[in-house]
Structure formats: structure tokens, C-alpha cells
């Protein structure tokens, strides 16, 4: 249950964060909406109105479990004291992102559209059919 709920909420949070980062005007998107998009927006609204600590805890548990099961290589460009080191380890262990050919994670580098699609596809694969 934890795994399915955590990944489902992760996808919804990714959509909410994408809307925020792109500065989208939700009202302006209404003329292009599909039923699926309307459902997704509804889920985003419901999720964001809930207790954030609950969902953070669910996601952390899922990614921590994956991290234990799939040890990831340490990025060559991040020390263990880096603020995002543990989060990067969980993302790597889940197979959602990878390291460069030199073994660097490059946390400063913007994520391309292709990489974002790959992450979402990776989350979908983890959730399963």
C-alpha cells in the first residue's frame, strides 16, 4: 500500500510542481482541457490541500525502501554532507535518474524535457500497470 500510494502521490506532486515552475495560469488552460487533465487538476488540488507532512512521509518511506533494496553509486560531485545527498541517493536507487559518464549527478544542471519525461515514465513503471 505504501509503495502504490507514495508513487501515485509523487506523480501528482510532480505535476503540481511543473505547473508552479512554468507559472501556468490554470484558468487559461481550461479551453484545452481533456477529461483526464481535469481529473489530474482535481487530484493536484486535493493533494495540495492535505497535510504536507503526511505525503512527505509516505514518499520518503517509499524512496528509502527502494534505496535499501537497490544501493546506488555515490555521485563523484557530491559529498555525503551535501544538503541533497540523501535525496539524490534515493532517486538514483529508484532508477529515476542516473549519473553522467564521469559519475557526477550535476545537481546544478537544469533537467531537460526528455529527462523529465524519463523520470515520469520511471515513476509510472514503479507504480506498475
Query: How much is the radius of gyration in Å?
Result: 16 Å
Low-confidence stretches: none
Number of strands: 0
- Residue share in helices? 55-70%
Q: With helices defined by DSSP (H or I, 4 residues minimum), what is the helix count?
A: 6
Q: Which structural class should the secondary elements be placed in?
A: mainly alpha
Instruction: Measure the end-to-end span.
Output: 15 Å
- How many strands, what sense, and barrel or not for the largest sheet? none
Task: Summarize the topology.
Layout: H1 2-22, H2 26-29, H3 35-48, H4 52-69, H5 85-93, H6 113-127
Helix pairs in contact: 1-3, 1-4, 1-6, 4-5
Give structural notes.
This protein is mostly helical and 129 residues long. Helix content is 63%, strand content 0%. It contains 6 helices and no strands. It has helices at 2-22, 26-29, 35-48, 52-69, 85-93, 113-127. The protein is globular and about 45 Å long. The model has no long low-confidence stretch (mean pLDDT 78).
Q: What's this, in brief?
A:
With 129 residues, the protein is an all-alpha fold.
Amino acid at each position: 500500500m505504501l509503495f502504490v500510494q507514495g508513487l501515485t502521490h509523487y506523480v501528482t506532486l510532480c505535476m503540481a510542481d511543473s505547473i508552479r515552475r512554468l507559472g501556468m495560469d490554470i484558468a487559461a488552460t481550461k479551453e484545452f482541457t481533456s477529461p483526464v487533465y481535469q481529473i489530474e487538476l482535481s487530484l493536484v488540488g486535493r493533494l495540495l490541500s492535505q497535510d504536507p507532512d503526511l505525503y512527505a512521509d509516505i514518499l520518503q518511506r517509499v524512496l528509502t525502501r527502494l534505496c535499501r533494496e537497490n544501493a546506488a553509486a555515490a555521485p563523484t560531485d557530491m559529498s555525503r554532507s551535501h544538503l541533497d545527498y540523501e535525496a539524490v541517493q534515493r532517486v538514483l536507487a529508484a532508477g529515476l535518474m542516473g549519473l553522467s559518464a564521469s559519475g557526477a549527478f550535476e545537481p546544478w544542471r537544469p533537467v531537460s524535457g526528455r529527462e523529465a519525461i524519463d523520470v515520469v515514465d520511471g515513476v509510472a513503471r514503479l507504480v506498475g500497470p
